[in-house]
Amino acid sequence: MIDIKNILDKLGIEPVNHGVTTGQVSWPGNGEILTSFSPVDGKKIAEIGQAGKYDYDQVIARSVEAYKVWRLIPAPKRGDIVRQMGDQLRKMKQDLGTLVSYEMGKSLQEGLGEVQEMIDICDFAVGISRQLYGLTMHSERPMHRMYEQWHPIGLVGVISAFNFPVAVWSWNAMLAWVCGDVCIWKPSEKTPLTAIACQQIIKTVLKENDVPEGVSSVVTGGREVGIWLADDPRIALISATGSIPMGRAVGEAVARRLGRSLLELGGNNAIIVTRSADLNIAIPGIVFGAVGTAGQRCTSTRRIIVQEDIYEEVKNRLVKAYSQLKIGNPLETQNHVGPLIDKMAVEQYQASVEKVKEAGGHFIVAPNVLSGEEYESGCYVSPSIAEVENGYAIVQHETFAPLLYLIKYTDIEEAIAIQNDVPQGLSSAIFTNNVRESEQFLSQVGSDCGIANVNIGTSGAEIGGAFGGEKETGGGRESGSDSWKAYMRRQTNTINYGSALPLAQGIKFEF
Ligand code: UN1
């Protein structure tokens, strides 16, 4: 049995916690008291004093001051501080991963995997801290030089979701820090303790390096804290991960003040299984994508689009695989599927199931809400599979639960059309051994998603790539590749080192 109390002690989580921190300094907010319950066993873990408006303004005032100092520290030096944070995370991986699993409900393996993503992004950000490259251009004017520089953008607000309660913050924060920005984090009110634990883990690094107070802040709270951030002209960039309605509200508020937003919202991710697919890898890929994290990743597999000749075989193998799934305490390694985040999520799963039935869908693996011993929290459901039409309203919508849809197709063009025919555009995959099909899927007439994979599933992206999607997914890109550019402002500089003043475009202006 895992000793949760001991892990909370090691992570500095108290029975009642300060819900506001500016890195080195923390205090109990004057907002409402929030209680964090575990979906694993339904037990109360700890309480948090959430931020009120006064606390929020204090944090932002300190962030503004911190930015004035932080932006002057050379980027590789900031990178070295991020490296030290990565070292601390390595030491605390087991404890933080366990708390992620206990507060959020994902399997311990996935909790540890999430902390590994944090460590990996630290390493990546250290490298990037020496590669914040701008281009140089040849000027059309004699004795002129043109180049561009990337400068920090300022204050970055990070709104994160419960399903990746720590990794998504680190994707944003580690890059923003090496870029010279300061971060204000509003974690999900469903997983506030993991956010507090992260601050405890990096606190010694901040202290040892004399990092100014306000470089890493947390303001816990609900929707209103998100609105304060979105409406605040002092926040240059809001990076928000979560539902499409949340992203729309944040995006509209930030756009109203002409600020920048980086949105990573819902997906409706499909896997196309073609006639030539190797089902020995396709089936596990589908099952992990659909039931991993109990279907609560934005990259979770929601739809399987299967070629008609192999439809019955795929269906039978999926039914067999689902019959072998063990549902239960995610901290116990033999279980594949843990609980949903809370009872509201269970109700939403049930409501979606009803809508599938009303639309004419047919369940081949029936959904259930589990009760009895081990399931006292009321948050455990069994994963389900339904045969549907892609056009059903409920299929067009992202249900954040292990509800998988099976859809039949005849030719590859039809499969790609079905894959793209949803409002969201995050992740997609094809299982095929036919190079024509895979190349068509990856081409400009193929998948319209930000992520398109061949012979792997839709979830579990590595941090080195740019992560995000199109359409209602929001268009933002986080994590690897050149996503760092979102956290900086570009300045174009033209320098005249001659003694004449020629104008661009050959314009003559004489007097
Ligand atoms: C999310 O669900 O918001 O690709 C992020 C994945 C993970 C990240 C998911 N690396 O599934």
From TrEMBL:
It comes from the Bacteria. Residues 33-492 form the Aldehyde dehydrogenase domain. Keywords: NAD, Oxidoreductase. The active site is at E264. It is an enzyme of class 1 (oxidoreductase). Its EC number is 1.2.1.3. GO terms for molecular function: aldehyde dehydrogenase (NAD+) activity. InterPro entries: Ald_DH/histidinol_DH, Ald_DH_C, Ald_DH_CS_GLU, Ald_DH_N, Aldehyde_DH_dom, ALDH7A1-like. SUPFAM superfamilies: ALDH-like (SSF53720). Signal peptide: none annotated. Homotetramer. Belongs to the aldehyde dehydrogenase family. This is aldehyde dehydrogenase (NAD(+)).
